[in-house]
């Protein structure tokens, strides 16, 4: 989850998010190099080192500042396209969960199980237990098995919502009357927090998302218990 005064992304909990962090660092280094070069040119022009007419009209400079930006764009575009395809790839998911956005809570349907459905409401501040996080905890978590491809079908019941979990690198809009899909694989057990990322009304900031990744055996025990309760 996020921490106070945090500057970077949250720690990656899925392979796709790890790729996104690597791409972020890659693009940031290119930005630093470009900023340094531009700063040097500005300082050089102010101090009078680049005011010679032959320097300003140089054919070599024209070639450099045409080819160099093209090379930089290629260095950014190729890994970006690779990550886009990785994010859209969904092959043989082990579990499918349908997330439905409501004003203002989420409900989940485990489509591989007949009666495994539940609503997920934010826990009010006065009902929080010690160690729980304000505005982030829910009464029912979306539990998934770790190291297993999980497909999430996202839709909405009333207005636009967005199902987003930053640590997993997942963000998908929920549109009434339409199914959007995304996928993730959790690389380690843990509890990952997210929030609706589409302004959906007065209580938009009070519909958190909690994904709990557990070993497969624990997931099977949890699903059996939920089905018995249902």
UniProtKB/TrEMBL annotation:
Cofactor annotation comment: Binds a copper A center.
Top-rank lineage group of the source organism: Eukaryota
Keyword flag Phosphoprotein: no
Ranges for domain Cytochrome oxidase subunit II copper A binding: 92-225
Primary location: mitochondrion
Domain Cytochrome oxidase subunit II transmembrane region profile positions: 1-91
Catalytic activity: 4 Fe(II)-[cytochrome c] + O2 + 8 H(+)(in) = 4 Fe(III)-[cytochrome c] + 2 H2O + 4 H(+)(out)
SUPFAM superfamilies, per database record: Cupredoxins, Cytochrome c oxidase subunit II-like, transmembrane region
Cofactor: Cu cation
Keywords for the protein's UniProt record, in alphabetical order: Copper, Electron transport, Magnesium, Membrane, Metal-binding, Mitochondrion, Mitochondrion inner membrane, Respiratory chain, Translocase, Transmembrane, Transmembrane helix, Transport
Transmembrane segments: 27-48, 63-85
Subcellular compartments: Mitochondrion inner membrane
Pfam families: COX2, COX2_TM
GO BP of this protein: ATP synthesis coupled electron transport
Membrane topology type: Multi-pass membrane protein
CDD domains named in the record: CcO_II_C
Keyword Mitochondrion: yes
GO molecular function terms attached to this record: copper ion binding; cytochrome-c oxidase activity; oxidoreductase activity
Protein family per UniProt: Belongs to the cytochrome c oxidase subunit 2 family.
NCBIfam families, sorted: CoxB
Function summary: Component of the cytochrome c oxidase, the last enzyme in the mitochondrial electron transport chain which drives oxidative phosphorylation. The respiratory chain contains 3 multisubunit complexes succinate dehydrogenase (complex II, CII), ubiquinol-cytochrome c oxidoreductase (cytochrome b-c1 complex, complex III, CIII) and cytochrome c oxidase (complex IV, CIV), that cooperate to transfer electrons derived from NADH and succinate to molecular oxygen, creating an electrochemical gradient over the inner membrane that drives transmembrane transport and the ATP synthase.
Name this protein carries in UniProt: Cytochrome c oxidase subunit 2
Source organism (scientific name): Muraenesox cinereus (Daggertooth pike conger)
